[in-house]
Design brief:
single chain; alpha+beta; Translation, Eukaryotic Peptide Chain Release Factor Subunit 1, Chain A; Nucleotidyltransferase, domain 5; six-stranded mixed sheet
Length: about 375
């Protein structure tokens, strides 16, 4: 089922949705990408920048012979103060004559307005993991928290929901049977707020299991959205029981596991256990993976020539594409075309820093045949 809608509410990309965007084809397709401020007085600049980029989109549409009114539904966003107070590091807006999609991105995006027959997806492709950063999900039956680990410290990440307790997430069942109000302290350290939690009578094993599945599913949705396309491994910290249920309930890919209950450990204990697990389970670096592109080219099973790669993507020959793209480069439009065509044909696309590329090229591909 399509997840591209006309809602003016930003969402994070989930697995498969970048491919869905790549398969969007219309005349015109409008892409507006921008960096955003998360908080503070700087958030006022979000609306100003968006208004300017929206004006640029209208001018590009009219210059190409299209009706600029296709983006008029977005004009109201420039005056919605609350909307710009709840952003991440980047925002991408995609518009066609039939659909509108707003995507919140957990990394800064370069300013870009693009009008064409496909969407501008170049900055949204998965980052090749450098091996020095991991996501850590601390999970029990009572609570869930997501961290970013840099080898030394754990930084708590705040998504739209996490960190959260079981009762923060479980949708009430049979609310008319019984109502219990409990107070929870907010995760930001503010004062207690009243949260209504409904409890049905006669809670049996089936209901407990269903509530737990719902809890894990919601946690999984938050985690999947936060880590999607970052290329950063996920470490799950949980008991064998909780971990098993989590992986059976969600589609989240877990790269390493720390067995045990994080509720019983200090922050220092958690850091040490994560560090040891990474050493044991995630040995080997990203450079080895990158080298396979150079090997494929040396064996005439790949290429670093832009023209050859663009032709190969159109024929469905590209299995994997690696880009160290400067979006201000004159060839960026060709790179975006290669990205879109590779995704449409079921290939994999990655971004990396220029210094990571195994060679001087900014674009490398591995061919299927």
């Amino acid at each position: 089922m399509s997840t591209i809608t006309n809602e003016l509410t930003p969402t994070r990309l989930k697995a498969g949705e970048l491919n869905e965007l790549a398969n969007t084809s219309a005349n015109p397709c409008v892409s507006i990408l921008m960096p955003t401020y998360r908080n503070g007085p700087e958030t006022q600049q979000n609306a100003i920048l968006f208004k300017n980029l929206l004006g640029d989109a209208k001018r590009q549409l009219e210059a190409a012979g299209h009706d600029g009114s296709i983006v008029e539904s977005l004009e109201s966003l420039s005056t919605k103060h609350a909307f710009w107070q709840h952003q991440s590091e980047g925002l991408a807006v995609f518009v066609t004559p039939d659909t509108t999609r707003l995507v919140r991105v957990n990394r800064s995006l370069p300013e870009r307005v693009f009008v064409g027959q496909t969407l501008w997806l170049l900055p949204l492709v998965r980052q090749w993991n450098t091996g020095d950063t991991q996501f850590v999900l601390s999970l029990t039956w009572d609570s869930a928290s997501l961290f970013r680990f840099d080898g030394e410290s754990l930084e708590l990440m705040e998504t739209g929901v996490l960190p959260a307790t079981f009762h923060d997430l479980v949708v009430p069942r049979d609310p008319e049977e019984s109502l219990q109000n409990t107070s929870h302290r907010s995760h930001g350290g503010a004062g207690a707020t009243s949260t209504a939690i409904y409890h049905g009578h006669g809670e049996g094993e089936d209901k407990i299991a269903a509530d737990r599945d719902q809890y894990l599913s919601l946690v999984g949705d938050q985690v999947a959205a936060a880590i999607y396309n970052t290329g950063i491994p996920l470490v799950l910290v949980a008991t064998t029981e909780v971990a098993g249920h989590f992986e059976a309930t969600t589609d989240v890919s877990v790269d390493a596991r720390v067995e045990g209950s994080p509720a019983q450990w200090s922050d220092q204990d958690l850091r040490e256990r994560v560090r040891q697990t990474l050493s044991d389970q995630l040995s080997g670096g990203s450079e080895e993976g990158l080298d396979r592109f150079a090997t494929a080219i040396a064996q005439s099973q790949g290429s670093s020539d832009l023209s050859e790669i663009v032709a190969a993507t159109a024929n469905g020959r590209v299995d994997s594409l690696l880009i160290a793209a400067d979006e201000t480069d004159a060839e960026a439009t060709h790179w975006n075309s290669a990205v879109v065509e590779t995704l449409r044909q079921g290939g994999s696309v990655y971004r990396c820093e220029a210094e990571q590329m195994p060679g001087v090229s900014k674009l490398m591909a591995i061919f299927r045949y």
